[in-house]
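Sample entry (240 residues):
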Amino acid sequence: MRSKNTDTYESQNRSFRYTLLAILGVLIVVAILAYAMRSMNGGNTPGTQDPMNLGAMENPTGTGGGQPGDRQDVNVSQQVPSDIPSVDSRDTAEDSAPTEGGGSAKDGWTPPVESSKILKEFSTETPVYSKTLEQYVVHTGMDFEVPADTQVKAVREGTVTAVYEDDTMGITIEIDHGNGLKSKYANLSTMEMVEEGDVVKQGQVISGVGNTALFETLDPEHLHFELWKDGQTVDPAEFF
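Predicted structure, serialized as tokens:
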């Protein structure tokens, strides 16, 4: 005859096996559900999600035609406004088309600024008085009185040969027009619109009027403009 203890032991073994089977079944169901959810989410594994939505931060405007989260380049020029329209000689033909300026010009020359008021004329024989230096000095160019940030244009087509900041005349741009002719624009506001080697068109905006000329800081806002022929300064009034 089977003892009562034997029956109790076998009953406990069966209960233990049933419990293990139940636990195993639950684990299998959980694994199946986890796999199904991962498949529905596109196969992403834990840790590959973007809980901070960094992709959206890279494309804050939502433009550019890419998918959400795709990295988009940020147009810095849209974030840094400027009072002077930026024209680069490497832009398209439409963007860099010559701008018709005011005033008059001879032989197809375009005035460097739209102004008919001459602050100082060209004078290399008779010195003119400088308020800044408090003395009489020769003046190798022509000063056009215009408000700050007035567009400065290339007087003729040519190649930019120098873009620099002069110790006395401030930000300066030089353009070679060929045949020994060179134009020089000083007291500018920026040197970021053209660079050395650029080919510019007649009437193209190359900078703006500033107040960077140390030797002319007490004069009204103006463009200091020079013309050179075969290495010698000439009177711009002969051309404008």
